[in-house]
Design goal:
The protein has about 325 residues and is an alpha/beta fold. It has 2 domains: about 10-80; about 90-335, NAD(P)-binding Rossmann-like Domain (Rossmann fold). It is built from 11 helices and 14 strands. The strands form 5 sheets. A 4-stranded parallel beta sheet has the order 4-5-7-11, with helices on both faces. The longest helix is centred in the middle third of the chain and has 22 residues, at about 110-135.
Length: about 325
């Protein structure tokens, strides 16, 4: 799939008077004069999460806007295959002189093959390059979605990994096995498996993308909505990453990273309150896929005991930040 995006070295500057937009870095900025509200919204969602076809469906002028941004040189090639795996030569060059690697790149989607190329083959290329470069530490950002939770109410780092199921969880489990194999070959690596990550940001799944889907009526509850979501704040996850880098005890270990557990109903009810939305529809019981409705706990005793990990940002903190970001976004849209 094609994923146009603003280049990582650039950022969007939205001025208070709302009559122009600047895109650039440092003193090098390109001006878009008199942007329409639709183009401002287009720029906000141009974060790499939408394919060209998705942008075209949402914004009739998307093709022309992408062409203009491409001519400015501030956008990646919209025809590039951003789901292509990281090849070994590129990985090797990228890690020359690198001290630590924090690998959090991943993709998701309904088709297993393109997801596997990125999540598994890309991880293998990066792990092999890191081993060859003898980096100080390789931190694999995994997910609790790697676990086979069917029939289990308690999960910890020794719980079995998926061997089938959704492409994202399955391929992330396969990627973890790649890193575990690299550890046996001498890679000083740590695997962190976070829960749902809270923290306001344009690309945040749980603070931005899922709330957007709730607004659009794309989220339905399974059964009574009491299935479990273990949450972690992004700043606490960063603390866990730093512990993984600096603690010699972390080498070769796997750690689940989560804090408070809440239900899908609690989470979506909060989002509904932000937008004054009605009750969510429910997934018919016959359509609930095995392993998708889960009530249980994820243990984080290992990382707390071995690395003295102690989260300091609550679920309420994360949701309040997300609500504030949404209110700011709506206020800006109304001013436009």
């Amino acid at each position: 799939m094609r994923h146009p995006r603003i280049k990582p070295c650039y950022r969007i500057y939205q001025l208070d008077d709302q009559d122009r937009v600047l895109i650039g870095q440092g003193l090098e900025k390109f001006e878009i004069a008199d942007p329409t509200p639709e183009m401002v919204e287009f720029l906000r969602v141009l974060d790499g999460s939408a394919t060209t076809s998705e942008l075209a469906r949402r914004f009739p002028d998307a093709d022309a806007w992408l062409e203009s941004l491409g001519e400015m040189g501030v956008i990646d090639d919209a025809t590039a295959d951003h789901d292509a795996p990281l090849d070994p030569d590129t990985a090797r060059r990228a890690l020359e002189g690198v001290h630590d690697v924090i690998h959090c790149a991943a993709t998701a989607g309904p088709e297993i093959d393109p997801v596997r190329r990125v999540n598994v083959d890309g991880t293998r290329a990066l792990a092999d390059a890191a081993l060859a470069q003898r980096v100080h530490r390789f931190v694999q950002i995994s997910t609790i979605s790697v676990y086979d939770r069917e029939g289990r109410s308690a999960i910890d780092e020794d719980s079995p990994l998926k061997t089938s199921g959704d492409p994202y969880g399955l391929t992330k489990a396969e990627a973890d096995r790649v890193v575990l194999d690299a550890m046996k070959r001498g890679l000083d690596a740590v695997i962190l498996r976070p829960g749902a990550i809270l923290g306001a940001g344009a690309t945040s799944t749980w603070a931005t993308r899922v709330p957007q889907m709730v607004q659009e009526g794309k989220v339905k509850l399974r059964k009574n909505g009491t299935d479990t979501i273990p949450f972690i704040h992004v700043e606490d996850l960063v603390d866990a990453v730093m512990l993984a880098i600096h603690s010699s005890r972390a080498v070769g270990r796997v750690y689940d990273v989560a804090d408070e557990h809440h239900t899908w109903r609690e989470y979506t009810d909060e989002i509904r309150r932000w937008f004054d939305l009605p009750e969510l529809d429910r997934v018919p019981d016959a359509e609930i896929q095995p392993g998708t409705f889960w009530i249980g706990t994820v243990s984080t005793q290992r990382i707390r005991r071995e690395l003295d990990f102690a989260p300091t940002r609550s679920y309420r903190d994360g949701m309040a930040e997300a609500e504030h970001a949404w209110r700011e976004r709506r206020a800006t849209t109304r001013r436009d």
